[in-house]
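DM from R.C. (forwarded with permission)

"hey, sorry to bug you on a friday — could you get me a structure for this? deadline for the figure draft is monday and I only need the backbone to look sensible"
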Amino acid sequence: MGDDRRPQARPLSRRDFLVSTGAAGAGLLLTSCLGRSPETRTGTGGSSGAASTTYEGPSVTLDYWNGFTGGDGPFMEKLVERFSTEHDNIDIKMNTLEWGDYYTKVPQAVSTGRGPDVGVMHIDTLATNAARNVILPLDDVAQTLGLAESDFAPTVWQAGIYNGSRYGIPLDVHPLGFYYNKKVMEQAGLDPDAPPTNDDEYRQALEEMEAKGIQGYWMSPFVFTGAFVFQSLLWQFGGELYSSDATQATFNSEAGVSALTWMVDIVKSGYSPKNVGQDADSVAFQNNKNAFIWTGIWMINAYKEVPELEWGVAELPQIGDQRAAWAGSHNLVIMNQRDQDENKLQAAKVFINWLTEHSLEWAEGGQVPALADVRDDPKFQDLEHQSIFAREIDYVRFPPPVPGIADPQATLATAVNEAVLLKEEPQAALDAAATKADELLRENAEKYGG
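My reply, with the result:
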């Protein structure tokens, strides 16, 4: 799971949650035990029913599954304990799994009638789970709770819709951001309080560090974080991952080639070592060996625990013509039970509503709250680093809500890997990946019914 040289104070298991972009998606594809058509749904006929912010029924116990095994886990545990304390008739039984196991076991459990009542899923897994009838539509829940697009960033809200129905209530957003090592910048004669904001400033800073013998930006060839860097740059250069109907890969466009060429040039110019290992960029950052790293908000609390590390965060530099940043998002979902208990359904909706309203406490675990009014809360603004990541909220981007999207995304990750490792030229690597991705998109359309 990474480099053995990591300092012990660094809880990199927080990185696991985003592995679901690939590994967990693959786990879902291995689980085809649920039907595709709405008529085969075993629960409430494809609807979660109306919602309320209160529950006055008999005492119930809700099984709540998630994958918060890292540094954010204790924050969720505290929220669950507080909710149970405030609701005498609702007890939450939380089961925490590694995300890879979670995305395999949840569909299996639902198909056998032993699934959880409520759970958490990443934004790029909602469509797959919806197509397999693992989760229920939540349109009525959102409507009755008074939730609308205006309460969230439009991109975040719209990403939870599949085939015209909402399947997730956004809890948070976890974007890619720009971390800078102040001590290394000072060693190169750079202003440690003025990180670069655009391509010219970025390259100038790398040049000045190289002149001092410092390789200032270690380019990762892996999903963490190379594939996320590529997607951010692709969107910054005006490109898209796929066609508007998600039937064809377009990441091998001129914008895609420009993005990957920029990454490769960092290596060829000597600003980065070649063959950077998994997480080696983060280890180097913590050991004052490099100055810049593009990684996620999930590293905030991890870096806080590294003794004497002097660092700051900023929005991603704008390398292309527009601002854009890769992001993920945790969404709250209700599972499709074989024998749906109406009391549990109502209690689950109350729990979901309560969690979103208390996402300020969740933000302390290293997240940006999805609700706009929580982000505007002065207490959130006092969170030094999370509030900076929140500035990216209006231009974060996600893969399209398409079932099985993890498969073509994996081919893209392979292209980034081969190009950054200087095994393939950017255009050739992206073209090969796009050809394979197109095939996978066609197969998935047939598998999931379009």
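R.C.: lifesaver. The domain at 175-327+403-448 is CATH 3.40.190.10 (D-Maltodextrin-Binding Protein; domain 2).
me: no worries. The chain has a mean pLDDT of 89.
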